Amino acid sequence: MVADLDWWLFPLHRWIWSDAHRRARKLLRFGETEADGGRDLARASELTNDSRLRCLYLRHAQDEQRHANMFRQRGAAVLVALPTRASSTFEANWLAPGERGLDDLRVDQQGDDTLLAFLHLSERAAAGRFKVYEKALSFDPSTQKLFADILRDEEFHMDYTRRELVRVSPKKHGWRLFSARAHRLWKGYLRVATALASVMGGLVLLVQYFVVLPLFALLAKRAARGEPDGWVVRPAKRSSFISQYE
Ligand SMILES: [Fe+2]
Ligand SMILES: [Fe+2]
Question: Are 185 and 143 a contacting pair, CB within 8 Å?
Fold first, then answer.
């Protein structure tokens, strides 16, 4: 479903990647996410009691660490080839996020079946997105090749997690996938809501600055027109508080 939406938004993805400064920043950020995912998987390999999964998690962690290095190197190469200029810091990460890793899932609090279900969905979404990015980057063959190389690993991750989920949880794997999907949907909703709140906050501030403030300035100017210029000594008002008998 996410991959379909990404194909619909293909022109937008092309635009997002077309700016070389943004491209470099996104690649560096993808590197951070991949390294983070690699650390989670290394931890998962320490915690699991299943020897087969331990080997697979470890290989997966090594793959993610390698992806992190590849993204960092390419990001740095794009960055140093550019002339320095002030540019927008907009990266559209909510729209083109790359691999999301485990979405802050606590590896040490999950069983193997839950972890495998999350990993499967995450890898499947990443593989779908990387296909879109690979096509969108036709103007940058080196970055395009990087995504094509990483995509092969992501497809392997996607397949082995599904296979192992069915092995460790033959009866409940459907339910595990369903609850992992619900969790990801909730996280997706939170991401969209946060992005929307940030845009709405910006709009409200703009309206305040360009509509409400000028209105107050206009009213203050009009009120000031009725006032005499300079210092004015006004006759003292007779107060009823001078004495209680007056
Ligand atoms: Fe990866
Ligand atoms: Fe992966």
Answer: no
How remote is the CA of residue 218 from the centroid of ligand 1, in Å?
Answer: 57
Q: Is the pLDDT of residue 246 over 60?
A: no
Question: Residue 41's pLDDT is what?
Answer: 95
In this prediction, residue 220 has a pLDDT band, given cuts at 50, 70 and 90, of: confident
* Residue 97 CA to ligand 1 centre (angstroms): 12
What is the domain count for the chain?
Answer: 1
pTM: 0.74
Task: Establish if 20 belongs to a structural domain.
Answer: yes
Expressed in angstroms and rounded, the spacing between residue 80 Cα and the centre of ligand 1 is 24
Residue 80 lies inside a defined structural domain of this protein: yes
Q: Which ligand is nearest to the CA of 154?
A: 2
Ligand nearest to the CA of 150: 1
* CATH code of residue 17: 1.20.1260.10
100 located within any domain: yes
Range of the domain at 76: 2-177
Cβ distance 71 to 108 under 8 Å? no
Q: Kindly state the tokens that stand for 243.
A: 């004495």
Higher pLDDT, 164 or 104: 164
DSSP 181-222: HHHHHHHHHHHHHHHHHHHHHHHHHHHIIIIIHHHHHHHHHH
Is 187 a domain residue? Answer: no
The lowest-confidence range among 7-21, 178-192, 222-236 is 222-236
